[in-house]
Amino acid sequence: MPSRFVAAPFILALGFFALLTFYKDGSFAVWMIPFAIVLAVIYALHPQIDWWWYKDHPPRLDKRLEGMIRRLSAFYRGLDVPGKKKFQDRISLYTLANEFLMRGPKENVAAPDDLKVLFAIPVVELTFDQEENWRLKNFQRMIYYPTSFPSPRIHDLHATEMETEDGVILVALDKIKKWVDRPGKAFPLMHYIMARAYLWSFPDKRAKLPEQVDVQALVGASLEDLKQHLGEPEPDLQAVDLAVRTARKIVDLPAGR
């Protein structure tokens, strides 16, 4: 973390004066105070310090994750080289900026990198041409449940949930795996919940989406089947439309690019 490098000289200085205080003279203790204060400030601000560095120097994704993105995202495959670099950088930044957890029997545990990328792909696809709030900053905590789940807000089993007050998004991992195993064919559940988050963040975008959605033509299943799959009595059909079209989107590049 960059903040650790910023803190390093102050840690050394604090240690130096601590040694002088212990071995030489207790009066040196007063010199420890400013370094301790600076370290406390660095600790409090370390997320901002790290982000300030990473936004201009995104960590590179390893080849395994890049291969995963290439397999799952038709959008990514259609980009030119600079576009692919931008896509990868945004994936990297999105996974750094947010918290990703897996629901355990007793407590939540950190999600592995590949599950972080599953959240990031639809966000980067949806906001690729945007510079303002491209990472949907109102939603910073993502939680995977093993299967469909009930919640205090929705008592029936359901596959996704968006808590706007707390900035939390919940998804059922078993439903996500169907899309991971069959990208382009299975319903893109992750795109659906992130499309809902996108439309909540940018409500004016709804005006550009169709008011009536032919679910059968779009997803190859009836509306009732979709309701059962999602565990929602009234799915957001505009989000369904946006999700499916985004998941299948291939970028049109000018000739020669």
What does this structure look like?
By secondary structure, the protein is an alpha/beta fold. The protein folds into two domains: 2-54, no CATH class; 63-247, no CATH class. The chain has eleven helices and five strands. It has a five-stranded mixed sheet. Helix 1 runs antiparallel to helix 2, helix 3 crosses helix 6 and helix 8 crosses helix 11 (237-247). The longest helix is centred in the first third of the chain and has 23 residues, at 32-54. The protein is elongated and about 80 Å long. The chain starts with a helix and ends in a 10-residue tail after the last helix.
Structural class: alpha/beta
Distance between the termini: 36 Å
Helix percent band? 40-55%
Task: Give the total of domains.
Answer: 2
What is the mean predicted local confidence, pLDDT? 87
Please give the number of β-strands: 5
| Cα radius of gyration in angstroms | 23 Å
Order of helices and strands: HHHHHEEHEEEHHHHH
